[in-house]
Amino acid sequence: MTPEPAGIVVVGASLAGLRGAEALRRGGYGGPLTLVGAEPYRPYDRPPLSKHVLAGELEPGATRLPELTALRARWRLGSAAVALDRAARTIRLSDGSVLAYDRLLLATGAEARPWPAAAGGGLSGIHTLRGRDDATSLRAALVAGPRRVLIVGGGLIGCEAASCLRDLGLPVTLVDPNPTPLAKTLGTFVGSVIAACLRASGAEFRPGTMVRAFEGDASGRVVRARLADGSAIEADLVIAALGATRATGWLDGAGLMADPGGVTCDAACRARTAAGAACPDIYVAGDVARWPIRLYGGRLVSVEHWSNAVEQAAHAARNMLAHADDQRPYEHLPAFWSSQFGINIKLVGLTAGADSISVVQGTRASRRFLAVYGQAGRSIAALSFDQARWLPAYAEAIRAGDPVPPILGAADQPRIETAAPGFPPPRAAAPAAQPAEVAHG
């Protein structure tokens, strides 16, 4: 099959892909531009799926992202990329067609980690929540009135879904192998506040609980979860909030540093080959990117944050159009927000490696507070629970590497409470039927 005309191809038609394509046009690129998307939809916003769409406040189609720049692009939607030939500079799609490229932006994002088929994952009534079709299917199941919803995983998606379902009046049980929700991201010192919110909402929270398998009835519909201790939880609808894996399977054999944790790129967002060299014609942005973050000692990170998808895509587009000797490093302070149980939660920075946390505004008991995470005496992250007024100042302190806590003597600052964050220790490898990670939302 003859390849289509070359130009810039963006693989991934979601937030990072769209904003990257727009940045290319704003940057003066006037050549052929193609966006490839596995889903049949134009780019849409994912955060509302676990909130407004599940609640019935928005139709899934109403989440479409605004297109801010005239793209003059070819859209290849509903046909996923399945192979990359770097030598020929071509991409093969699932429909058998071949796209040639001069430069390539990888923005394929991440995919929901499914429940293993060997442990009952093929039963009807078991849902994941990542894309528009997921939200549509889950919303229909909720409208049908399940007797008991079981959520497996206490990360962001699991907690947001629990909050939404309780607002709908549905009976909910959330199980997590850790002592509190969000323990791996925020630690148990803060996670205990989310646990209290869960229980106050009327949800049942089962910490330290491992699901081994799901069992179904004669029709193949889920009816219960079998736990590691031999007991069971009855449920006719399950949300498997097991975190995500990066959409990199199609890159097998392409000679890139790519695995389920992401595509490794250099500081300029150029993909690295298996040998470690930077590819001058392939760039990476968004959830799928794994890049060295200077602010945290150059360690490799990948984040599933809305702001990073937008900013990294724009930065990658800038470097794609720049000369080889003008490749600027991507400087970004990760940040995310979540709305659950009537609380707006915001985090700036990365909490991994923190050895202390200090509540510097408000109190945990009031569920309105601001806390700073420290590592070896340095401020590395700041967290707000409905107390975001000071958050920009703490973000600047994190960028500057100020001591922890960086701001003292503020007029509305109470006695500072400092403790260990309470991150759970790494768990031993799980049996084949049990997902290794079930706490990431």
Return the CATH class of the largest domain: Alpha Beta
- Count of strand segments: 29
Largest sheet: 6 strands, mixed
Uncertain stretches of 5 or more adjacent residues: 429-441
In CATH, the homologous superfamily of the largest domain goes by the name FAD/NAD(P)-binding domain
* CATH-defined fold name of the largest domain: FAD/NAD(P)-binding domain
Overall spatial form: globular
| Lateral strand order in the biggest sheet | 3-2-1-7-21-20
Question: How many domains?
Answer: 3
Q: In what range is the share of β-strand residues? A: 25-35%
Q: For the terminal residues, how far apart are their CA atoms? A: 41 Å
| Helical content class | 10-25%
Instruction: Figure out the total of helices.
Output: 7
Overall pLDDT metric = 93
Structural class: alpha/beta
Radius of gyration of CA atoms, rounded to a whole number: 22 Å
CATH architecture of the largest domain: 3-Layer(bba) Sandwich
Explain what this protein looks like in three dimensions:
With 441 residues, the chain is α/β, with parallel strands linked by helices. The chain is 18% helix and 30% strand. The protein has helices at 15-26, 132-143, 156-167, 183-186, 188-200, 306-321, 391-400, and strands at residues 8-11, 33-37, 74-77, 81-85, 90-93, 98-100, 103-106, 110-112, 126-127, 149-152, 172-176, 204-207, 211-216, 222-227, 232-234, 237-240, 244-246, 258-259, 262-264, 270-272, 278-284, 289-293, 299-301, 335-340, 343-349, 356-363, 368-375, 378-385, 417-419. α1 (15-26) links the parallel β1 (8-11) and β2 (33-37). It starts with 7 loop residues before the first strand and ends in a 22-residue tail after the last strand. Mean pLDDT is 93; it is low at 429-441. Keywords: FAD, Flavoprotein, Oxidoreductase. This is FAD-dependent oxidoreductase. Residues 8-313 form the FAD/NAD(P)-binding domain.
